[in-house]
Amino acid sequence: VALQSGPCLGGPPGRGWGPVTSVSPSAIAREVMAQLNVTSGIEGLRAVRDATRIQWPSRYMEDLDVAPYFSAYFPDDAVVRSPPADLWAAGAIHPRAMLVGGTSKDGTAAFYGTAPTLGNIAPDPAQLGDAAYETALKGAWGAAARAVRAHYPLSRFGGSAQAAFVQADADAYVLCPQTEAARMAVAAGVAVWHYEFSHFMPSPTAPGGGCDNGVELDVVEAGASATWATHGAEVRYVFGSEQNHDTLSGRPRIADCPFSPAERRLSDEIGAYWAGLAREGDPNSGGGAGGGRAWWPAYGAGANWTSLVLGVGGGVARAQLHGSACNFWTQLVSK
Question: What is the pTM of this model?
Answer without folding.
Answer: 0.83
